[in-house]
Write a structure and sequence with these properties.
Blueprint (H helix, E strand, L loop, with lengths): L1 H24 L6 H20 L7 E2 L21 H11 L4 E2 L16 H13 L10 H18 L6 E5 L2 H16 L9 E5 L5 H9 L6 E4 L10 H13 L3 E8 L11 H11 L2 E6 L9 H6 L8 E4 L1 H4 L7 E5 L2 H8 L7 H4 L7 H4 L9 H11 L2 H23 L3 E2 L7 E5 L7 H15 L5 E5 L2 E7 L7 H18 L2
Parallel strand pairs: 4-5, 4-6, 6-7, 7-8
Antiparallel strand pairs: 1-2, 3-9, 8-9, 10-11, 11-13, 12-13
Helix pairs in contact: 4-15, 5-15, 6-7, 6-12, 8-9, 16-18, 17-18
Length: 492
């Protein structure tokens, strides 16, 4: 009897603790009126942010040093006030450093973050659909698969291809490299005689991907490029033949469809011929350039891309979506499944549903954000036509800048393949690299537009990267005016 009484007392204590915990935990479910006020405050902030965009700087040379206000980043046990939090965000987050949402962002490639994508993210976050397996959310998986299918059709892939939405080009390249390794059966014992071919224009994520997938011990050949920074097919052919003669195993060819430095597009058809001849897996990094396939010029520049075994495209670049949206495509989906298959007893219900491939079967991710909504909603809302027109505008703006900057006496890289190019000014006397570095710094400090720099053949160059949906002739003319003024004041 005493033991029973003790048990009753323990149960009573448990029930009391449950009641207290539940009372506090339920505060995470805001009442409708309070939730509406928070949403209204956030929506008002977003509307003000967008409305003030034409007058906002593309770069604020501030916010790098810590201040006492940065205590606002720290978490507390007690609730905060949304008005105060938004003020803090405005002062310590959204007016510091680079503003990628600005049309004056001409330095790096991602394309601006179209606001309607945020509505997709809002719905995806509220409904919290799990887009990893078809069993858990057939609608969410079908939406993501539809975005993958549309992208693959742009590339020109026929039946049997597959793909998955990833966090960006880096993870997408990693998935493609892992798939190539599995498809070609590369074992650890093979690495020292296995050869990968790419140019010095390849994105750094590809080298990282080789290391992460265990291919870091492969022989990596940097194939020479021509005057337009495109891979030289004759040099590639000679290198592959020499490697074969030396008893090595040519394995992977990585080509560019829009390099980061200068937007170069390699001769994909010719490279595909060589890949077929030598049984190489051909991967095309089209993270930047891929969605220019919506334009006639892009289709011409990337002729032959459909022959690649795998392709990477970033909707957060060419479709102007927010950061964190990439797509990897593989011509034969069976290779993607082979590389990323898994077994888990607790997933047995999900594995019984095979009407459509699940993203978890096609990538390293199991827990994943429902990315399809942020892509599907703006494309459905606006239709494809204005996206195509925006990409065409970026091509024309880059040609315009290329023409005008040459008139101002600047050296330029050859006529741009897409919407990225490099340029530099060589003064009558003094160090050209130092001059261009100082000029870039002056533009950045003024902040109306933001530009970046690179090294080409050991020389310091300035880069133009036109891909924000908010970038128009106005922003390009601002940059031209600044460059012309700097040269007049310092370059003669």
């Amino acid at each position: 009897m005493l033991e029973l009484v003790g048990t009753d007392r323990e149960l009573q204590r448990i029930l009391q603790q449950l009641e207290e915990s539940e009372c506090t935990a339920r505060k995470l479910e805001m009442p409708p009126g309070e939730r509406a006020k928070v949403l209204e405050a956030v929506t008002h902030y977003a509307s003000e942010f967008i409305g003030a965009m034409p007058d906002r700087k593309a770069f604020e040379a501030s916010g790098y040093e810590r201040t006492p206000a940065d205590r606002g980043f720290e978490l507390e046990e007690t609730p905060g006030d949304i008005a105060g939090m938004l003020t803090f965000i405005r002062e310590r987050v959204d007016t510091t450093g680079l503003n990628p949402a600005s049309g004056g962002h001409l330095g790096y490639i991602p394309g601006g973050g179209i606001p309607e994508a945020a509505l997709g993210d809002y719905l995806a976050g509220i409904t919290n659909r799990y887009a990893g397996t078809f069993y858990a959310s057939p609608g969410a998986v079908r939406m993501e698969n539809a975005m993958v299918q549309w992208s693959g059709q742009l590339v020109g892939y026929g039946k049997g291809f597959g793909g998955v939405m990833a966090s960006g080009g880096s993870l997408a390249n990693l998935i493609a490299i892992a798939t190539a390794r599995a498809a070609k059966g590369i074992k650890g014992r093979d690495l020292e005689r296995t050869v990968v071919y790419l140019s010095d224009q390849a994105h750094h994520s590809l080298g990282k991907g080789l290391r992460i997938t265990g291919l870091g011990e492969c022989i990596v050949r940097k194939v020479p490029v021509d005057a337009r920074f495109r891979m030289d097919p004759e040099a590639l052919q000679a290198q592959v033949e020499a490697d074969k003669a030396a008893g090595l195993h040519p394995f992977l060819l990585i080509a560019n469809a829009g390099s980061t430095d200068v937007g170069a597009v390699d001769p994909l058809n010719t490279l595909a011929d060589l890949a077929a001849q030598h049984k190489l897996w051909m991967h095309v990094d089209a993270a930047y350039g891929g969605y220019f396939l919506l334009t006639e010029h892009g289709m011409h520049m990337m002729a032959g891309i459909h022959r690649a075994d795998s392709v990477v495209m970033d909707p957060h670049k060419g479709l102007f979506l927010p950061y964190g949206t990439g797509i990897v495509l593989v011509k034969d989906v069976r290779h993607l499944l082979q590389a990323h298959s898994y077994e888990a007893n607790y997933m047995q219900d999900a594995q019984e549903q095979t009407l459509e491939h699940s993203p978890a079967e096609l990538s390293p991710e199991l827990s994943k954000h429902f990315r399809g909504m942020r892509m599907w909603l703006p494309l459905k809302l606006h239709g494809i036509t204005p996206f195509r027109a925006a990409l065409e505008e970026k091509l024309w703006l880059t040609r315009y800048f290329h023409h005008r900057i040459a008139q101002l006496g600047f050296e330029t890289t050859p006529a741009p393949d897409l919407s990225v190019m490099a340029y530099r000014y060589v003064p009558a006397s003094g160090d050209a690299d130092a001059f261009n570095k100082a000029m870039a710094h002056a533009v950045q400090q003024e902040g109306r537009v933001f530009i970046s720099t690179t090294l080409l053949h050991g020389q310091f160059w300035l880069r133009l990267a036109v891909l924000s949906f908010r970038t128009h002739k106005r922003e390009v003319d601002i940059l031209l005016e600044q460059l012309e003024r700097y040269v007049k004041e310092h370059g003669r």
